Amino acid sequence: MRNYYQKEAETMPLEQLRRLQSEKLKAQVKHVYENVPYYKNLMDEKGVKPEDINCVEDLYKLPFISKADLRETYPYGMLAVPLSECVRIQSTSGTTGKRVIAYYTQKDVDLWEDCCARAIVAAGGTKDDVVHVSYGYGLFTGGAGLHGGSHKLGSLTLPMSSGNTERQIQFMMDLKSTILCCTPSYAAYLGESLKERGYKPTDNHLKAGIFGAEPWTEEMRKDIESSLGIKAYDIYGLTETSGPGVAFECEEQNGMHVNEDHFLAEIIDPDTGEVLPEGEKGELVFTSLDKEAFPLIRYRTRDICVLSRKKCSCGRTFVKMSKPMGRSDDMMIIKGVNVFPSQIETVLLNEGYTPNYKIEVDRVNNSDTLDIYVELSAEQFSDTVSGFNAKEKSLASAIKTMLGIQPVVHLVPPKTIERSEGKAVRVIDKRKLV
Ligand code: ADP
Ligand code: ZN
Q1: Has residue 329 got a pLDDT over 90?
Q2: Residue identifier of the C-alpha nearest atom 4 of ligand 1
Q3: Which atom belonging to ligand 1 lies closest to the Cα atom of 141?
Q4: Euclidean distance between CA atoms 13 and 316, whole angstroms
Q5: What class, spelled out in words, does domain 1-328 have in CATH?
Q6: Which of 39, 86, 150, 370 is at 20 to 30 A from 132, Cα to Cα?
Q7: Each residue of 105-162: pLDDT tens digit?
Q8: Residue 3's closest CA among 130, 133, 117?
Q9: Second-level CATH architecture of 332-429
């Protein structure tokens, strides 16, 4: 028997889903127009009135908003209900600049937690599971979201938060955690730490992990699955749209179903703003359909991915988004070539290296340089007493084949690259580009 948290919604026939979305969109647009002067101005400037929006096909008529709008209206300029109706504030991690805050009514929190519960169930979770939440708690949405979802499902929730790896491992073993929720970089670190303490992948009770909040590759998935002895599922979200749970992976593990009864997803050309057809790669844009306090209309995420409506064997009808390969602002232009850190990660793991690496970009004599520091595992280190140079060259050439530009690879001893408990920072760009 297949499991869903909210079967009717998750398996709704497309036609019915479209009708539901259209109705909700009409109401949402009216809500923002009447209650958020900032949105009203944007719509007035574009000459669009709430009456012009009658179905999802009318979405393109609406103006986009971006992080810049949210920063401009900080803190309460996007509030669409009286503040006394709000019960929670969360904030972005500030990975790419000043933090943005989001506010929630009780209904907003409930819907968000439902989305996270759907993700846990899709990863095989039930009320009998022990859900070990090692996302950060606090303003960051990771901890709160998965915690709430686990409660909704009635699972036993361990609010570990991030950090204190010793205690994470002790509780994971003593309390027999079955589902681990954290960033993929922290999952990889936990796998490594368990191994160092002499545990085999079969020694823990984990069966699945729900990892997100940062880009990670298929190679990283394989690495985590084998080091922890689990199935690793992706989950996506951003504070602006509630938090994690906007989209989640099912047993197929090839793309995340977008919770389309609550969010409309579009892919646009990031340069022209033109809506692209299904299957084309571009910037992901979300419109919230139910959010009361902090609704979003055509919010540009800057995340680059592809949407697909190919039928999924899990029975869910929601559109699937591919793993975002990184944000448009993670993309580096090095010697005129577009480079995503995820491409480098793919090569490293394929070549048998650890997912512990750092990328340094600089400009020397008007020419870009790319240095990649890659940590060796303890075994690799002791095996590589000689031949360092040859190994560095061979890895550099594999990376060159992927990127088309020549990096300098530095193999470094075990434990010399800092581990991350939350979102990993992997790129240092020293170029002073304006
Ligand atoms: P910040 O923008 O400060 O990092 P958030 O903590 O809200 O704020 O992070 C949201 C962003 O994290 C997304 O826009 C996306 O770039 C990234 N992200 C979240 N989940 C994933 C995922 N599963 N894969 C790739 N990137 C992700
Ligand atoms: Zn599916």
Answers
A1: no
A2: 95
A3: 6
A4: 9
A5: alpha beta
A6: 86
A7: 999 999 999 999 999 999 999 999 999 999 999 999 999 999 999 999 999 999 999 9
A8: 117
A9: 2-Layer Sandwich (3.30)
